[in-house]
Amino acid sequence: MSTNGGARRVREMVIKEFRQVRRNRGLLRVIFVAPVMQLILFGYAVSTDVRGTATFVVDHDRSRDSRDLIEAFTASGYFRLAGGSERSRDLVRALDHGRATVGLEIPAGYSRALRGGDEARVQVLLDGTNSNTATIVRSYAERIVQQQSARATGAEESPAVDLRARAWFNPDLASRNYNVPAVIGAIMFLVCLLLTSLAVVREREIGTLEQLMVSPLTGRELIAGKAIPFAIIGLVDLAIVTAAALLWFGVPFRGSPPLLLAAGVLYLISGLGIGLLVSTVSNTQQEAFMAALLVFMPTILLSGFMFPVSSMPAVFQWITLLNPMRHFLVIVRGIFLKGIGLDVLWPQFLALFAMGVGLLGLASARFRMTAR
Amino acid sequence: MSPKPAVRIERLSKSFGAFRAVEDVSFEVHPGEVFGFLGPNGAGKTTTIKILAGLLRPTSGRGEVAGFDVMRETREIKRRIGYMSQLFSLYADLTVEENISFFAGLYGVASERRAARRDWVLSMAGLGEHRRRLTGELSLGWKQRLALGCAVLHEPPILFLDEPTSGVDPISRRNFWDLIYSLADAGTTVFVTTHYMEEAEYCNRLALMNRGRLIALDTPAGLRAAHREPILEGRENRLEMVEPSLEDVFISLVRDAGGARED
Ligand SMILES: Nc1ncnc2c1ncn2[C@@H]1O[C@H](COP(=O)(O)OP(=O)(O)O)[C@@H](O)[C@H]1O
Ligand SMILES: [Mg+2]
């Protein structure tokens, strides 16, 4: 009888929650409009492709081969001619003044060395202030120089294959394909965290929480009644944002939609758990909002969203294992780009499941229907 | 043999840190009576009610509501009481009907009784025509009657009302007390706090709290009689025993008890 009554109380909570969401225009915007706009904005913003980099050229060789090399740089689209001169000094000055990010210096004798089968050297100077950009630009430049030397010598034997360069050198902007699925993960987490962290606190503020606490509703039922509607909303969001990613950015989707849905459910449970925990320890909506942002920052920094986990210090790599977003990003990227399945992704699924159950359990255990 | 008390507390105390909000309070409330709980702001009335409603754990002492222990059996208690907090606490963004249906579901009102209970609340609160309006748009008097209706949807034997009529006009207050009386006539025990002295007169018995302590407990008539004072009356300046108003009684009792708390 009591379990039956419990299910009914949870159902009443869910119905009530949906009615309130339906009447709240601000909330509807946060749920349905903001995520799509964020996806589009971030989709462009996080692109790590570097195009049209300002390039200053000093050509001491002034041969056909040197002109071909410069032409290859600009034709690639990754470099844009920002100036040229005969003096190396000008190149340094252009970099110092920020008029160029890349300097290309072709020494006299470049063509002769190239034709003679010797090592043909060119110098590429980079503004390393933004180390990310510099790394990428450098690999583009290396690739172009190698290609040119291969073409000039007419050699069939391709230059030594540089795997890293190949991954970066991506004519169809694969960095966006890599980043947009991650943006989906970040947006879902943010929406979920904000909605749920405010959900219980709002009731505490307006006094209805006390009315719930004095009813037969248990802490666990309250948490379920709050988690279920927001999980449903989060899944609808996942579908909308995924559709927008496919339609707007044309990101490939090579894996299984049901698997993405399953991952979404597990991931949302973790997000809801954290949000509800925030909610149970905050007294005002402002407090909850601040706490949610405090949680969001490290979650995103330690997720591999912007900085690859593999390049973090070992301690932080361990910490990322406790971050649901890290696991979800591995899953979405895997499903979108590689089309891999549970046979590969099961550790991430398992981790998300364990964290979700743990966090929700903690939230309902923390929530007391009788204050001390 | 009197029947089992609806509420019984014994040496109940509640501290918030070093601050003693309720101190060593004992009394009983009889089934079916309208029990008035009075006292200046900060006297500890709300704290006591929250302990009885299972919202707060007492620091020491014992308490029973409907025969269940306020320390260990709060779940049993919550099924048997109605509670209206001193803050309005229905959902402003739900309609009148949606609020009723939500609380009916929460309290497990049987499906076949739900329509009847809903109609009863709508008619007792006079909200039949406004059933589809958002609760937040109603006047305070209506909101309070609706809140009372929602608190008794499950027909609890004991009802706790914490300043249910504060801030509303005298007519609405009168209407509200008519509802309290009809509930009491039907056998409900009503435990009510108030600021208004004319409301105190409507109660069967009154408990007066000050600084967390119980300083008086009697019927309104008993309290007045105990504070009769000789006063020079008439043309012959005869000494007459005159009954003071309840307000005078309370003011002198609070003064004798050291005055009200300064918050
Ligand atoms: N949660 C709390 N923490 C600290 N002090 C409290 C708390 N709740 C109430 N108090 C204090 O306890 C005293 C009694 O409060 P209350 O029971 O609300 O009085 P009343 O309802 O009679 O006005 C007040 O001084 C109040 O400030
Ligand atoms: Mg009070």
Main sheet of chain B: which strands, in order across?
Answer: 6-7-8-3-9-10
Computed structural class of chain B: alpha/beta
Shape of chain A: elongated
| Ends apart, CA distance between termini of chain A | 29 Å
Helix content of chain A: 55-70%
- Compute the number of structural domains of chain B: 2
Overall tally of structural domains of chain A: 2
Mean pLDDT of chain A: 86
The number of helices of chain A is 15
For the secondary structure, the number of strands of chain B is 12
Question: For the CA atoms, what is the radius of gyration of chain B?
Answer: 20 Å
The CATH topology of the largest domain in chain B turns out to be Rossmann fold
> Which strand order do you get reading across the main beta sheet of chain A?
2-1-3-4
Fraction in helix of chain B: 25-40%
SSE ordering of chain A: HHEHEHEHEHHHHHHHHHH
Strand content of chain B: 25-35%
CATH architecture name of the largest domain in chain B: 3-Layer(aba) Sandwich
The largest inter-chain interface, given as chain pair and residues per side, is:
A-B, 28 and 29 residues
Chain-wise SSE layout:
The complex is a heterodimer of chains A (372) and B (263).
Chain A: H1 2-23, H2 25-45, E1 53-59, H3 64-75, E2 79-85, H4 88-96, E3 102-106, H5 110-115, E4 123-126, H6 131-152, H7 163-168, H8 174-206, H9 208-213, H10 219-249, H11 257-281, H12 285-301, H13 314-320, H14 324-338, H15 342-366
Parallel strand pairs in A: 1-2, 1-3
Antiparallel strand pairs in A: 3-4
Chain B: E1 7-16, E2 19-29, E3 34-38, H1 45-52, E4 60-65, E5 68-69, H2 74-80, E6 81-84, H3 96-106, H4 111-124, H5 140-151, E7 158-162, H6 170-185, E8 189-193, H7 197-200, E9 205-210, E10 213-218, H8 220-226, E11 229-233, E12 238-242, H9 246-256
Parallel strand pairs in B: 3-8, 3-9, 6-7, 7-8
Antiparallel strand pairs in B: 1-2, 1-4, 4-5, 9-10, 11-12
Helix pairs in contact in B: 3-4, 3-5, 4-5, 5-6
Bound molecules: adenosine-5'-diphosphate and magnesium ion.
